[in-house]
Amino acid sequence: MEFEAYRDRMGTDTVGRYDLTPLFADAETFESLRADLLAEVPTDPNSAPTVVAGIDALGFVLGSVLAADLDLGFVAVRKGGKLPYPEGELLRREFVDYSGESKALELHPRLLDADDRVLLVDEWVETGTQMRAAAALVEAAGASVSSIATVGIDHTEETESLFERYDVHHLG
């Protein structure tokens, strides 16, 4: 499906960002979205992901579906303070999001191995700060980012560094 068809189905009368949840509510649209994102995932044995990581919260929806299709494990990159572990056991990265709010992401390092190649998934990348924080967590755990998959990305100076450093796949 063309990106414009997805955009027409998104909630666009929103404040600050698109609402992608209508894409999940319609089975045919969701299946098309799944297939389109899956088609972008690297398949070369030397660069294909060995695990999928989704960013809280809508990255969980897309990432878990892709992980199941790829027969890979799924790792949740959580918002700060949501994982039930003592602070010292978690990797944490703070960032300022698209709205100017200070936030954090966390990851338990035991979920990734040093030889893992991670497909990072989120629904949209506005400024890239959240995606860069998630990538930093993956790398701090000793794994590498094989690629990034997202429905949409705002092409700005801020997001350019993602394209320079990682294999970024997006539908629009």
From TrEMBL:
Biological processes annotated in GO: purine ribonucleoside salvage
Predominant cellular place of this UniProt entry's protein: cytoplasm
Protein name: Phosphoribosyltransferase family protein
Keywords, sorted A to Z: Cytoplasm, Glycosyltransferase, Purine salvage, Transferase
Domain Phosphoribosyltransferase residues, every copy: 34-151
GO cellular component: cytoplasm
Highest taxon of source: Archaea
UniProt-listed Gene3D superfamilies: 3.40.50.2020
Subunit comment: Homodimer.
PANTHER family: ADENINE PHOSPHORIBOSYLTRANSFERASE (PTHR11776), PHOSPHORIBOSYLTRANSFERASE DOMAIN-CONTAINING PROTEIN (PTHR11776:SF7)
Pathway annotation: Purine metabolism
Family recorded in the similarity comment: Belongs to the purine/pyrimidine phosphoribosyltransferase family.
GO molecular function: glycosyltransferase activity
Keyword presence, Cytoplasm: yes
Alphabetical list of CDD domains matching this protein: PRTases_typeI (cd06223)
Record's subcellular location: Cytoplasm
